Amino acid sequence: MRALTPRGRFAVLLLAAALAAMIGLSLSNGPALAAGEEGTMSHAIGVFAPRLTPAEGDQTDSGLALGRMGLTKVFNGDLEATGEGQMLTGTAPVGGIHVYVALERVVGVLHGRRGAFLLAHRGVMDPNGQTLSIEIVPGSGTGELTGISGFLGLRIADGVHHYDLAYSLPAD
Q1: Per-residue pLDDT at 39
Q2: Consecutive 10-residue runs of the chain (172 residues): their mean pLDDT?
C-alpha cells in the first residue's frame, strides 16, 4: 500500500472526525425502528473496536473527493464476532458535506447462535445535521442466524464504541 499524501492524510483525519461526530450524535439513543417493530425485536448490546485502513486510489475531481477504506471490527458482549468490510466515502470541500456507504460481513455468535450476516451502512453529514442507518441485509443470515433481520444502533462514549443490535429471528 502506498503512503498517503499530506492532502490524503488530512482527508482521512477529516472524514474520521466527521464520522465519529455523526455516529456519536445521530444514534445515541439506539436504532430507529419501523412502527410496531419494537415489540418483536430482541436486543444484543456490547462494545466493539473498529479499525479503518485507507486503500489506494483516492480521487479528487471537480473539487469532490472519493475514497475507499477497509473496515475491521471486533464485537464483544451479546454479540461475540468479527466484522470485515469495505467503506466508500465522499466529501465536498464547501459546506462540511460528508457521506459514506459500507458493506460489512459479521461472523460469530449472537446470544448463543452461531452464524453470519451482512450489515449495510449509510451515513450523511451536512449543515442540516447527521443521519446514520445500519441495517442487517434481508436474507443474508447464515447458520443459526438464517432469517435474521434488524438494525444496529451505536454511540461513542469516552472513546468507546457501544452497539445495540435490535433484531428478530424466525421462530424455531
Answers
A1: 53
A2: 41 44 40 48 96 86 90 98 96 87 98 98 92 96 98 94 96 72
Cα separation, 96 vs 35, whole angstroms: 32
Contact 80, 114 (CB under 8 A): no
Phi, psi of 12 (to 5 degrees): -65, -45
Q: Supply 158's cell numbers.
A: 469516552
At 10, give phi and psi (nearest 5°).
Answer: -60, -45
Local structure of 98: helix, strand or coil: strand
Exposure on the CB side of residue 171, measured as CA atoms within 13 A: 1
Residue pointed to by grid coordinates 453470519: 116
CA 21 vs. chain centroid, Å, equals 13
Q: How many CA atoms lie within 13 A of 30 on its CB side?
A: 14
Contacts 24+ apart (CB under 8 A), 81-87: 81/106, 81/107, 81/108, 81/109, 81/110, 82/106, 82/107, 82/108, 83/48, 83/107, 83/119, 85/119, 87/52, 87/121
Give the tens place of pLDDT for each residue, 83-94: 999 999 999 878
| Number of other CB atoms surrounding residue 8 within 10 Å | 17
pTM, to two decimals? 0.78
